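Proteins fold reproducibly. Consider a sample protein:
=====
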Amino acid sequence: LRNILNRYLSRIEVAIRTTIIYELSNKYVADPTWFVNPSVVSSQFINDFSVKAYQSIKKKPTIKRHHLKYLGQYAPAWKTLELCSFGTLSKLYCNFSDNKIKKEIAHQFNVPNHEVLESWLISLTLLRNYCAHHARLWNRLFNAGPQMNVKLRGSWILYQNVNPNKLYALLCCMAYCLDNLSLGKGKDFKCQLKKELSSHPSIDINAMGFTKNWEQEPLWDTSL
């Protein structure tokens, strides 16, 4: 289960990374280090990023070569953010000052507003960390739950009483994002997940928050 989630979470991470770099670098063409500009990002994020994240990033060969050749405290966004963790990217998105650009990014994932995408990214970052550290998933209670009772343009779940702090809620968010990122990836993820669950019939999926008749939900339809 962890291996499946890790594989597809990485696709979501790459999509978030690419979208943020592309949209913000085009918007702030004159400022290649917009990620540390206090008019673009909150000062709290900039301080944390400077003290923690960039200290690690600047040790990477790409950034080392950049600083040997160019002046400036930071390498440009398209180099720096390539080396950021999913958690840092999520925090960056949540700390953008311009809600309009946040909404534009959310729309690229077919999500109606930035508040929803923020909650999803925070939750998926937590899930990614658990997967990366080989932690238990199947009956875990997650501290940060995504917004679930939302109206979405794409195929979503009809049953609204989903526990946002259980794994099933996060799987729904993953499936929805993958459906709207690239052709076929959402279907591949759903098919692999269903196959994995069916191969272990003794596992209590209710402990993961799965609802009754979850496979009949529009989101989980793999017939198309």
